[in-house]
Amino acid sequence: MIKKLVIIVEKENNEILVRFTASMNASRIQSILDYLRYKELTSKSKAKEKYVDELVKESKSDRWEKIRKSIGFDD
Question: What's the superkingdom here (predicted)?
Answer without folding.
Answer: Bacteria
